[in-house]
Predict the 3D structure of the following.
Amino acid sequence: MTTYSFRLYVAGNTERSHAAEVNLRFLCDAHLSGMYEVEVIDAVERPELAEEGRILATPTVVRLSPPPQRRVIGDLSDHGRAAVALGLPAADASPSEGQ
């Protein structure tokens, strides 16, 4: 069983930051059902981690595992495109399409 690991970089407690986290957790629940972990990094509070991760914009989600690493910038509101970009299983069909 493959476990997916994501790191979400946000900038403060903003509506866009909250939307990105909600959308990421929705996608993970829909495509990975308990086989994932999400770490949220606030780049305002932990700028050294954002710099180490070479984060240029927020929100940015980084899929750490399984390799290869993938990055998506934005609030992930386009679930279909975000799932494909993150390489989620069965990401070629939206969960709402009755797959």
Summary: Residues 72 and 85 are 7 Å apart (CA to CA). The chain has a mean pLDDT of 91.
